[in-house]
Amino acid sequence: RSSDLQLGVPGIIHGFDVDTRFFTGNYAPAIAVQAANLNQGEVPEFPPRINKMGTAFSEEEFEAVCKLGSDAWEHLLPLMETKAGYPETSHNYYPIKSEQRWTHVRLNIYPDGGIARFRVFGIAQRDWSATGENDLVDLVAMVNGGVSLGFSNAHFGHPRNLIGTERAKDMGDGWETARRLDRPPVLKVDDQGILQVGGCEWTVFRLGHSGVITHIEIDTNHFKGNFPDSCKIDACVLTPQEEKEQIAQKWNTKNFKWKPLLPVSKLSPHKRHFFESVALECHDVITHVRLTMAPDGGVSRMRLWGFPRDLPSTKG
Fold first, then answer.
1. pTM metric for this prediction
2. Which of 7, 71, 185, 267 sits at 20 to 30 Å (Cα–Cα) from 14?
3. DSSP result, 218-283
4. What is the rounded radius of gyration, in angstroms, for the C-alpha atoms of the chain?
C-alpha cells in the first residue's frame, strides 16, 4: 500500500514521525519512504478527491498517479519496522540525513494496516530562482526558510512561532517568556515612555535568504496584559561556520558583531506595529537577526519584509 503526498512547503527533510496511535492490533508493521523534487510541469492535474471512507481510486485518479512515476522515486527511508499504537510506543521517529530539496514523498506500508499521523520534519527551502530582485518578500518567514536558532527564554511559547503563517490564533501560537524576577520595585520611564529596566529576553533567527530589510511588522495579537513594553532588532552577517560557533556558545559572545536594525521601539497590547524603511538603521545585506524584548512578555508574529540579495563577493 502507498500514498503519494505533496509537501505543504518544499524543503530539506530531517526526519519522519509515523504515529500509529490507537492502531494496536491493526497497525502497519513496516514502512518505507520515497521522495522526489518535482517542478510544476511534472505534476499532473488531479480530479477532485471524494472525502469519504471506503472510497477507492477512480480511473482518472489512478492514471494521474501513474504519471507521477512515484514507484521510481528515490528511496529516502528504507524498509523500517514500526511499533503498535500504544501511548508509549506509538511515535516511530526516523532521522534523515539529506541536504537535497524535496517537494513530494511517497509513504509505503507493508503489507497493510493503519497509521494515525505521518509527519515530515525539516526546513523549508524556497525556489529563489523564481523570485526577482525587486520582489518584496518576508525573508524570515518559516515558509521561506527562516529558522529559529536560539533564545533566552521560552517558558510559555517557542520563538519559532513568530515566523509562522497568518496571524496567531491565540497566545500559545506566539513567543512568550516567563516574568522576569529582577524587575525593579519602582518602575520608571524615559521621555519616550519606555520602561527603564535592566533585564530583557532575546531570540535569534537565520533568514531564508540574505537580503535588505525595508519594512518590519511586530504583532502582539492576543497579548493584552502580558505584552512587552518595548523591542529592538539587531542584524549581522554570519557564515555557516560562525553560526555553528555561536550556537555552541548559546549566542553568549561579548562584543559580537550585531548592528542596530530597528531601534528601541514602544509596543502596545494586542496590536500590529509597522515600521517603515525610514525608521530602520541598517540598510545593508544581512543574514541573521536578533529580536530583543524588554522586559519580558509575549509577541505573536515578526515579519521582516525586504529584497533578497546575495552577499557581496569576497574575492579580490
1. 0.89
2. 71
3. EE-TT-SSS--SEEEEEEE---HHHHHHHHHTTT--TT---EEEEEEEE--TT-EEEE-GGG-S--
4. 23
